């Protein structure tokens, strides 16, 4: 197709163009640095064109957070958007709003920033791009904007070249760069040590496509030697590929590295378009990083008119028993079936199928008895015998149950007890197949009254060559969210891209996995400090379906062949309902185990999943986190504390409680001899009367923690 703007210019137009060029050049030469400060004046963003190259710099209380760093993009088959720019406009404005999330860590969220938008023109190519900066009290967001224009209609990104020039060899909490998974243990090291530790970091993990000895994922959490906490991530990842960071370990400059698609391209853009926001959260207090709402604020408000169907969910599930190997997702064995002609009513069952009518009813009864909203049932549908074998492009149709799972009756039974069944769509990575069935799958859910789906993308993506985090897949995840919303369905995506605050726009995105969850406690274990890091890294983008609540810490109790154990004390498992914020919380262990510890289980029953207010009482990434949260619409507060393998004494002040009120505190703590390896199930529960003047000290075992419920006296 001939480009409409490539027709020959007339002589008059040509001389006009030369004049414009000259003006732009002059403008460029006289361009001065632009500066904008955060509303409280503590952060300063400067923008400057250095010999035609756009650069920015960020300072916090006079300290360098990001040294002058280059901005721009390299394009495929045409000159780059990195240099030769003149500044043709610069606009500033201030913005201040308070909005109410559908669900969240606080009742309202303040979105307050000062903005600078710089328009840049390349005289030679007559292309224009804008860089928009928003400076909040807690950090900076900026993005590229490509207005619609004749000389920049559509283009292919070869690489985004956004730099983050760090001021030193910071301590980093990092995951190896990977286009397909974030299910790694976090490595804590200096940036200069990344290269040396990369190989070990990858070994033994679910690594698929690590791309470089110094490639890192976001959210990346950093701490400078002089005590600045810095978090780098992105917000509003829409129609663009997921950003990784490439570290230059000589200069300590991080540079964006986008996920390539099947042919190595990094994004197809048609103007008008915007990149996602690049985010830098910064503070000298670790707790401020946890409380930052910057990533959410950089997303667009939801356009959903009716959100009454979106509700936080506390659930149990036919799940951990399969993860541990006690039962199976599949109904029969592979030997018994031929995929193209199988009649499951005629094949021999394997006798270990978890999602059978009688067993699912036990879970429904348990959920109803203890006030849970829902039961997740995995392995309900045909195909699990060969779910990521060579037939995976056809294996699941998302509507055919195994013969021992009566969809209609089980949903009727559940709903008669005020419980919902959560649908499970494991796609086995075959996105083509999933999109083929999506409409009928969601209609099927509507028909039987399912209102939430857990999706899954295990294995290589089909069409082959695509990566879990490339632009095509990003568009798929967002397409599923939109389709689901049209059917009033909430989504919890596993193995999808890590969240970037999109739940502001799509509040039906109530959960994601996109990190190493509790399931790994059955696959060899998570590090004891894992939950002291995730809130600073993965959770910066949005909630995680971490699936806590494992009381039987020895996996062999369910499956003698499995020697894994949970790297946490039982008391700490309770704390996670408070420290791992999510509007979707699972009590992941088996009913038979909870029935043996009903006193501790009481905390899981009581804890809220939606909050009016959140405070960070203590925090240091990698070492400990203590949160206090006020239940939405209730006077109760809940405290959770998690610590690393060393154990510690936590000291907290209950000053967050309402003046003049008395509360009963129930403290679920590690017993004095508890230890995540040696004695994980030893806990103690005590009650005491407290007010906002009370100060508490509590010993946490190695790999331990505690949980407290604070209920107004007399309630
Ligand atoms: C991996 C998910 O994280 C897990 O929760 C699920 O049970 C399996 N895939 C099977 O879909
Ligand atoms: Ca530590």
Automatic annotation (TrEMBL):
Residues 319-515 form the Glycosyl-hydrolase 97 catalytic domain. Residues 36-301 form the Glycosyl-hydrolase 97 N-terminal domain. Its cofactor is Ca(2+). Keywords: Calcium, Hydrolase. Gene3D superfamilies: 2.70.98.10, Aldolase class I. The keyword Hydrolase applies. Coiled coil: none annotated. InterPro entries: Aldolase_TIM, GH, GH-type_carb-bd, GH97_C, GH97_catalytic, GH97_N, Glycosyl_hydrolase_97. Residues 610-710 form the Glycosyl-hydrolase 97 C-terminal oligomerisation domain. GO terms for molecular function: carbohydrate binding; hydrolase activity. Monomer. This is Glycoside hydrolase family 97 protein. It comes from Hymenobacter edaphi.
